[in-house]
Design brief:
The longest helix is centred in the middle third of the chain and has 18 residues, at 215-232. This protein is α/β, with parallel strands linked by helices and 363 residues long. Strand 12 (332-336) and strand 13 form a beta hairpin. The radius of gyration is 23 Å and the shape is globular. The protein has helices at 37-40, 42-45, 49-56, 85-92, 115-125, 141-151, 156-169, 185-198, 215-232, 243-249, 267-272, 277-282, 288-291, 294-297, 318-328, 346-354, and strands spanning 20-31, 59-70, 74-79, 100-105, 108-109, 126-129, 203-207, 235-240, 252-257, 260-265, 311-312, 332-336, 339-344. The strands form three sheets. It has a six-stranded mixed sheet, sandwiched between helices. Strands 2-1-4-5 form a four-stranded antiparallel sheet. It has two domains: 70-98 and 111-283, Rossmann fold (3-Layer(aba) Sandwich); 288-354, CBS domain Like (Alpha-Beta Complex), CATH 3.90.1280.20. 38% of the residues lie in helices and 21% in strands. Helix 6 (141-151) crosses helix 7, helix 6 (141-151) runs parallel beside helix 8 and helix 7 packs across helix 8 (185-198). The structure holds adenosine-5'-triphosphate. Adenosine-5'-triphosphate binds at residues 31, 59, 61, 79, 81-87, 241. It comes from Streptomyces ferrugineus. One of its GO terms (molecular function) is ATP hydrolysis activity. Keywords: ATP-binding, CBS domain, Nucleotide-binding, Transport.
Length: 363
């Protein structure tokens, strides 16, 4: 399996419902002097980031961003270094104060929350997993995991019981009594993950949690996240600058550039229908056949094609279709509930791989 291939078939994932967990509208975060004047001034918002900095001394880290995070999805925020990912995600729980715009969690206005409500938001509802773990060095694994519960005032016996459960869930059984210094980087990250999970938050926020890990451990941790998500269906917001990580984990990806979201879509939409030249360049080297599905690659079936040839589910990848078509020598049918939605043949599949066939409507 290459790094871009998703670890779970999309059909095995829980479909997200339509109630947004986070709802963000016209969000701005401007750093610098008199930051508030920037979003309100059309002349300033029209400037490039460099011009804005020269004219005002301000950096617009997040520029007029709107999106919903749906219940049960893995929402990835991706972009190069400095594109505004961390600032955006920190604004969700006001670890960074937004300059303007609205943020709601389950319909509740986050910007109107007082200190105690915010504390409750960060402790119970939206827990963050950091790149540098944030572990307490003198505490054992179990006590580090129980820490969030301790802050919540959960009694010792109960918090140790719950901590032991999540320690097992993230594969650290037997290491409960070690201290962080006695663990590998990957194991420490699992402790960080367990600590966030222990408080049973509605949404987990990951700030580039795996970027310091070596590639093999990183892949293990990505698979761990996919597994946890499959088992629990918990909403996750995941920051990464790594495209293959984004494609592997994300149900939807918000691709950021200079503080703006330049495209928001499924991995398939981002790779198959890039919104502009920047996105196209970004995804140029992605093996398209591993991301695009036959649902978008298929064409209409002729009368004699609809009842013969190998059958594929609509979410089968083009890569799987190539195998099926090569094996049978005939076009493959895309079937749903016993109905033939369309077919994919040699020509169509090669066109998708080569990038000459634009995925989209059934022709
Ligand atoms: N406290 C701050 N004061 C001034 N500028 C800031 C501050 N924090 C971030 N910035 C600027 O805002 C922009 C976005 O930064 P941010 O850290 O959100 O990007 P990022 O995409 O998360 O980058 P990375 O992947 O390197 O963490 C950058 O230009 C950064 O220099």
């Amino acid at each position: 399996m290459t790094t871009t291939q998703r670890s779970t078939a999309p059909e095995t994932r829980k479909p997200p419902t339509e109630t947004p967990v986070f709802s963000v509208e016209n969000l701005w975060k401007v750093f610098g002097p008199k930051a508030h004047r920037v979003p309100a001034d059309a002349e300033l918002t029209a400037l490039t980031p460099a011009e804005l900095r020269t004219r005002t001394g301000c950096t617009a880290a997040v520029r007029d961003v709107s999106f919903d995070v749906r219940k049960g999805e893995v929402f990835v925020v991706m972009g190069l270094s400095g594109s505004g990912k961390s600032t955006l995600v920190r604004c969700l729980t006001r670890l960074i104060e937004p300059t303007s715009g609205t943020i709601a969690i389950d319909g509740e206005d986050v910007r109107a929350m007082d200190k105690s409500r915010l504390r409750e938001l960060r402790r119970h509802r939206a827990a963050m997993v950091f790149q540098h773990f944030g572990l307490l060095p003198h505490r054992t694994v179990l006590d580090n995991v129980a820490y969030g519960l301790e802050i919540q005032g959960v009694g010792k016996a109960e918090r140790r019981k719950r901590a032991a459960e999540v320690v097992a869930k993230v594969g650290l059984e037997g290491m409960e009594h070690r201290r962080p210094g006695q663990l590998s980087g990957g194991q420490r990250q699992r402790v960080g993950l367990a600590r966030a999970l222990a408080v049973d938050p509605e949404v987990l926020l990951f700030d580039e949690p795996f970027s310091a890990l070596d590639p093999l451990i990183r892949r293990d941790m990505q698979e761990e996240v996919v597994r946890l998500h499959r088992e629990e269906g918990r909403t996750m917001v995941f920051i990464t600058h790594d495209l293959s990580e984004a494609l592997k984990l994300g149900d939807r990806i918000a691709l950021m550039r200079d503080g703006r979201v330049v495209q928001l879509g499924t991995p398939e939409e981002i790779v198959g229908s890039p919104a502009d030249d920047y996105v196209r360049e970004f995804v140029r080297d992605v093996p398209r056949e591993q991301v695009l599905t036959v649902r978008t690659a298929m064409r209409a079936a002729s009368a004699d094609e609809a009842d013969k040839g190998p059958a594929l589910a609509p979410d089968a990848t083009v890569s799987e279709a190539i195998e099926a078509v090569a094996r049978s020598g005939a076009p493959a049918r895309v079937m749903q509930d016993g109905r033939c939605l369309g077919v994919v043949d040699h020509e169509r599949l090669l066109g998708v791989v080569a990038g000459t066939e634009q995925p989209g409507e059934v022709a």
